[in-house]
Each structure stands twice: as structure tokens, then as C-alpha cells.
Write a structure and sequence with these properties.
mainly alpha; 0% strand
Length: 94
């Protein structure tokens, strides 16, 4: 069984449909080694959510609150780099 499958089993066994068990499931996965990415993917798959919705829910959870600011800063930097590249590329004429 892969680590991702193990984490999915942890989520399934911890989540029973309410907000408290959702936080418990996220925490159980995190202390078992789940990354934020793992958590987003598992929540999306298990709750049949689009990735952006799952990302928003997981990133704003109590469990991942300690990573929220760093994650948002990292994403903003990536966005800025991509915009600069787009502007650079769009200034060329072919």
C-alpha cells in the first residue's frame, strides 16, 4: 500500500461528515506525514470537489493554518514570475 493510499484510509476512517471530524481527519493525515498537496488531493478525490475548492478549504482549515501565509506568499511569487515571463514573451513579434 502506498503512502497516499494510507493517508486516504486515514481520511476515510476519521471523517464522518461533520466539520470537527474533517479537522480531525486533516490533522491525522498531517501527523502521519501528509503534505498540504496530499491533503488537497485526497479531500478533492474523497469529497468529489474541484481542486480549487479543495485547496481553499484545506488551506483555510485549522490544521493547515500554520502554513497558510507561507503558501500564499510562495504562490504570489510564482504568479509574479509567470506574469513577468508572459509580458516578456508577449513583447516579441514573430
Amino acid at each position: 500500500m502506498s503512502n497516499f493510499e494510507t493517508l486516504t484510509d486515514i481520511f476515510r476512517s476519521s471523517f464522518n461528515g461533520d466539520e470537527n471530524s474533517f479537522e480531525d481527519a486533516l490533522y491525522a493525515m498531517k501527523i502521519s506525514g501528509a503534505s498540504l498537496r496530499d491533503s488537497v488531493l485526497i479531500v478533492a478525490k474523497e469529497l468529489n470537489l474541484p481542486l480549487p475548492n479543495s485547496d481553499f478549504i484545506v488551506l483555510n482549515s485549522k490544521t493547515w493554518l500554520d502554513s497558510k501565509e507561507d503558501t500564499e506568499q510562495f504562490r504570489d511569487k510564482i504568479h509574479q514570475i509567470l506574469l513577468k515571463l508572459w509580458h516578456l514573451y508577449s513583447s516579441y513579434t514573430f
